[in-house]
Amino acid sequence: MRSGAWSSRPGSAYDADSGVDAFALTPAQRLLLEALDRRGVRFVVVGMGAALLEGAPVATQDLDLWIEQAGDERVRLAATDVGGFWISGFGMQPPAFGGEGLERIEVVLTVHGLEPFAAEYDRSVEREVDGLRVRVLPLDRVIASKRALNRAKDIAQLPALEATLLARRG
After folding, report:
1. Which one of 6, 68, 73, 140 is most buried, counting C-beta atoms within 10 A?
2. CA atoms of 75 and 87, how far apart (whole Å)
3. The CATH number of the domain where 22 resides is what?
4. pLDDT in tens, 75-115
């Protein structure tokens, strides 16, 4: 599924031990996540990418990363390591990665309705994506964030997210 949108495969099931194989990274995204990890940058996959990795039957066009410290020089170095670049943000412009294959990575500085990064990082779970272990916001926290945002597109996703959470717990 390297075409730009990620989604759960029909009939695929959540399996916390084996990871979710329906989520594919582009080669550039994989290299960036590896470089961030190698450089010791703490980040968590959030948003619908996290929901998908937690087994929800949803689709997303981008990969949302919550980076602990966007001003950390190691973030810029990781981007450079993979042939990309890092714009630390200014004014109303949020920070962003740039370069071939990195255009669908969205950087978030805060996640509405949740605690600060350190607390949510401690709650995050490790999942395997294309053989790479990444920290992911748990589904119940994704739901809390979507509720807090209260945007129409987030409210529309809640039934699928809540049904997935209920199925996992039941």
Report:
1. 6
2. 10
3. 3.30.460.40
4. 999 999 999 999 988 888 889 999 999 999 999 999 999 99
